[in-house]
Fold this protein.
Amino acid sequence: MKLMLLAGDGIGPEIADATERVLEALEKRHNLGIELFRQPVGLEALKQHGVTVTDETFADAGAVDGVILGPVSTVDYPPKEKGGLNPSAEFRKRFDLYANIRPSRTRPNVPASVKQMDLVIVRENTEGFYADRTMFQGSGEFMPTADVALAVRKITRQGSERIGRAGASIADGRRNKMTIVTKSNVLKMTDGLFRNAAQSGARDYAGIEVEEVLVDAMASLLVREPERFDVVVTSNMFGDILSNLAAELAGGLGVAGSLNAGDGFAIAQASHGSAPDIAGRGTANPVALILSTAMLIGWIGKRQENEAAILAAHAMERAVDAALASGGALTADLGGSASTQDAALAISRAILPE
Ligand code: NAD
């Protein structure tokens, strides 16, 4: 299994090293034939090559089974014309990564605001309200006069159908329930189309119970009754907001893994940013990137019908829970005192006891 590791900026290199260490233990225990390639991305690539992601990196990414992308300090990048490409956005566009898959689960020893949560938010990633994704030419945000600003929201049948199908395929391996979140009582055409097409995509999977919940009600229910949700499918901006809410309720961004997936390619990416305030101290929590990597290995396993990879991904998840339960992976953000490397070691030992 060929994986590309792009460490990124800020705490990226620290949590990438931790992830590599865990992958070494996984390889020893599960023999997946993991080969890890590193390439610079972000400010390091800008310094070396004058651009935050090179064409060579994109070409190499196309030849591996999956990519692990650390957080990137996009706020500090120069404009695109001066080499400041947003790596996440570029990968998403070039590889048509339309599904942002973000699980949130309460975990042992991790302080959470809710008693129990185990859900996956599947966020449409290529359309919606995002000005860089709605137009063939020009921006989806514009000002007809100095005092009026407009934004266009794009919803297509094809985009909504495929995100519905992606959600149902995940629900199929879980509790067989899918909640489509919309504001179709107000946005009758756009969210009406989103709901109908997502329902139609979900029909490819038999036995999935599909319901619709309005986004405002969803914000309350996530806090009040999160245990009733299994897979939540929604459009881009609703998904952006609800997935951060869910992650925070379940224990915070430090334990929130995520995968950006298309039909043939996926990228593991932690939900959090590059945390410049704690970079270089060795205290960053590597769990989110490690869980994202477990998701990637599971996704590759499912796609390639590689049972060993699917089992290894589950083992990584269980190892994270064990290391959290023992306190070995509790970094400062989770109320503990483990360093980034302590956490990596505790997770590695849970995979491969010494
Ligand atoms: P952030 O997620 O980097 O940090 C928010 C807070 O959470 C900080 O206090 C930080 O210390 C803490 N935190 C985040 N990850 C942590 C971890 N693994 N362990 C312990 N604490 C952690 O958000 P920000 O400060 O708004 O953004 C910083 C930079 O990250 C910006 O340049 C932004 O553009 C970028 N960003 C990148 C991504 C990405 O690469 N996917 C996502 C969001 C933000």
About this structure: The chain is about 40% helix and 15% strand. The first strand starts at residue 2 and ends at 6. The CA atoms of residues 34 and 89 lie 26 Å apart. Residues 11, 71-76, 88, 253-254, 269, 272-278, 284-285, 288, 333 surround nicotinamide-adenine-dinucleotide (CB under 6 Å).
